[in-house]
Amino acid sequence: MHLRHAPRFGGGELPEELFIKAMAATSEISLITDASENIQHVSESFTAITGYTADEVLGRNCRMLQGPGTDVDTRAAIRLALDAGEPFRGEILNYRKDGSAFWNMLSITPLASESGELTHFVSVQRDINTRMALHEQLRFQALHDPVTGLPNRLAMNNHLVDILAGGPRSEVTAAVGMIDLDDFRVVNNTFGHEAGDMLLKEWAARIQAQLRDEDFLGRMGGDEFVLILSGISRGAPEAGLTRVLERLSSAVEVPFSIDGRRVTIGMSMGLALFPEDGFDTASLLKSADEALYEVKTRKHGRRRWWELAAEVPSASDGVAAASGASVSDGVASASASAASAAETGDPADPAEQEAEWTRERRRDALYGGGLSICLQPVIDLRDGSVHLFEALARLTLPNGTVLQPAGFVKDLSAFDLDHLFSTVLEQSLAQLAEWDRQGLNYSVSVNLPPTTLLDPASPDLISSALARHGIAPHRLGLELLESQTLEWDIQREALSQLVRLGVGLAMDDLGAGYSSLKRLSSLPFNAIKLDRDLLADIRTKPSETLSLIATLIQMGRDFGMNVVIEGIEDEGIAEAVAVLGAPLGQGFHFSRPLAPQDAAAWVEHFRLPAPNGSLRTCLGALAYHWQFARLGSPHPRALAECPLSRFLASYGSSADVGRWHIQQHDPRAAHAGAGRLLVDWLVRQIRTPAEPAGPRMELLA
């Protein structure tokens, strides 16, 4: 193929120097293919983002990154541009080696020889997951109710337009229903609006679980909902509707639980058929609303909770209109009580003399041989290997009490902190040298007090210690606390010297301070450690916590840094952060800090608790589903091979949950509602076990 406008070069082969320059010219994901789109070169950032090494992709077609969620029209547009030898620029959903999805801002430029012959394509790719996740979130919010997650009025209008666009059909019809919860105001007045919102959310989940894939349930506001049923037999519409609507009635017969009290609530609905009761959205909703009004006036004497617009008897039929709600006998009304606060006084401060004596005891131990280290392994969450330990200081007092840093560091002066650092560094490097003599190759990270960097000689001190123990600089990592104050000019120069030396630098406890982004962009870090407090709410706010962790992991990728998750205390957290792509983690779930002499033996026997690719916890299952749901992507693997399929089967989930999951494997259409229901169900499993039965409150319908 001859190209008129593509960049050209002399000769028939793209020179190797040009490959190198092309890779160096961009910090974004890049690859170069031949004219047949077979990959010939990839950048290091390509490997960091996709998980594929160069050896795994060289010679393969670049379409290997596409998957079930990749838009068909986008594929066609790329194909059209490349076949014509023209550039392409657009957004595309791609998939990493581990199956996780990422949105990619893709730019493809054809290269031509001097004679105009197409020879190569240069592809610049940028991970835009954060932007697209926000876009998907905004799109969802624009079309869904924030309380229940159901489609809103705008989404309902769009759905009805699609149904009515085909016109009346001879064999089947559609029904539009207006639903009102009977006396829902009693719930709000008795328990408060927050409890009312929780009931609405649970009600919506129950009803939606009973609907067919083609049905639609939306919230118009308050306790008013719209139900749209498709494929109803025109010859016997009432029979077809009865089969569906009996399931809905049964779903709400089980009491709801509010503050430990069981509450039952009824519902009323008016139904309009298309086209008998209306030809457009406005007329159908009007007919349904009129039928709803009539059926509510007969709430205590009706034979069923719904009626068709054409069959609702008029008020002149003598059916008494009645409304109201009552609380069943024997149920105590909600009462407010206030418990007097226990009087507690702040403990008196210790006498200054005793405090000074305590500080002196600690300083004596610090300088008198009481300082030692223990080692906590840092786990590679991708394969379970261990190559790095964090050295943690321990101070042993004369009476045998062992203090962790939180128990003594706050009392140390800058001079004391320098001594602490140099002692921990010496012991850590000595341990590496001992392992070297045993034929073991590990690395170690040491906490670096920012005040130590104020000493211009600190880089030389570290360099001398490395040389004295015969340790290569790349095997030492220094962790700088994010919550400490930096004096930029002096400390930045010291850090730059350490980087030139070859020592690794990590920002420790990211999220515990306030100036992190400024430091990350201006200081030469190559790793970040996420503060354990970021995981504190993962059981009560799992979706929000996963979103935060995923964003910080993505930020690490964008900055080209390794990411370590601290505070992994249980299997669920370990599984969730691994699913989100965290490369490294540490915490009590894997190991408490170890005595140096025990560390190597621990590594020899350590195995990741769960095999790679499987799911064993609800947190891990939520993370797996959430990573696709947030991007509007279907699950990429075949249903039978999906790890969530195996998890749900072993967990004993209901048929409804299984159906929501199956819909996530449909590449033909997005099922955002079912995806949201699956998220909500997993969140409920994570938060609390089933609530115990309490006193029952009846809202009589």
Automatic annotation (TrEMBL):
Domain named EAL: residues: 355-607
Gene3D superfamilies, per database record: 3.30.70.270, EAL domain, PAS domain
Annotated GGDEF domain residues: 172-310
Domain PAS: 15-85
A Pfam family recorded for this sequence: GGDEF
Domain PAC residues, every copy: 88-140
Stated name of the protein: EAL domain-containing protein
